[in-house]
Input
Amino acid sequence: MFASCGFCSGALGGDGGPSGLGVGRRFAFDPWRSRAWVVCQRCSRWNLTAIDERLDAIAALDRMAAAGRIAATSEQVALVRLGAYDVVRVGKPPRVEMATWRYGERIKARERERMKVVIPVAIAVVGLSVAVNVAAGGSMGAFMGQIPTLSNAIYTGIVGGRKVAIEPPICARCGAVMVLRAKHVRSARLQRTTRADLALLVICPSCKGEGALLEGADAETALRSGLTYVNLRQSGKLKKKASEAAAQVDVSGGPESFLARQAQREVKLGTYKGAEALALEMAVDEQAELHELERQWRQAEEIAEIADGLLVDPGVEDALRHLKDGGRPGG
Ligand SMILES: [Zn+2]
Ligand SMILES: [Zn+2]
Output
């Protein structure tokens, strides 16, 4: 296996783990078409493994997928997590197990991000010696007790003010360009349309009317920003909430059917509370990742088709041999 990405030349990273490939942290395989890839962590492109090591790699990846937990699945793609490794199986639908531990990882990552703001704010107010203690929830007297609240409020404000990374829609009522921020998504409603399973009716920040209907990737992006904000504003024990959220998604049969059910309710995002709000965010996250993987997979299969086709084309084989012989024309 090559050590660097064929698309961006970045190092592929990771040690390959049980895949036996010696490199990579995220892998993809298509057992039905006998293809295996190492996914680049830098550019997300799929690097096709050499044909002679493919069968071994597929067998190893199949074992990894069987030992791991299925985090999300669509008709064609399953995302399986095994410790630090991700295995993407493409081609056929397996069963979903919405794993609580996976939510645990998400929550840890979110907590780390919060600390990046909370600690500097606390340091600015009370100095380094007590900031870490305060951020970790230590009690330092009445005044100090206000610091976590203050710095959390600042952090929530920062997240709420973040622009939603989509092409701003035009308001159907007042014609304004709707520059949406995470906090605006609170007043949006989930919808189900004839074209999309999941759509989002967003309120115009200028005229406060129902200004635009987002679908597909735009709806997903807006939901992800909005729900991060909605969930930040809520208090309570995250760990307990996480396992409740996982259970809610599980009971509905996975992220896709959970989201379909929520879309039918057509309620404002801001009305989601507690575990249900978290479940919604997690389900949207999983779906978005899956859609991105599906897009990458289609592209990777196209490239594999061409690459494998070239290998069996006698004309190309001849041309390659000539190149090896020193590139002499007709040699
Ligand atoms: Zn790359
Ligand atoms: Zn408007």
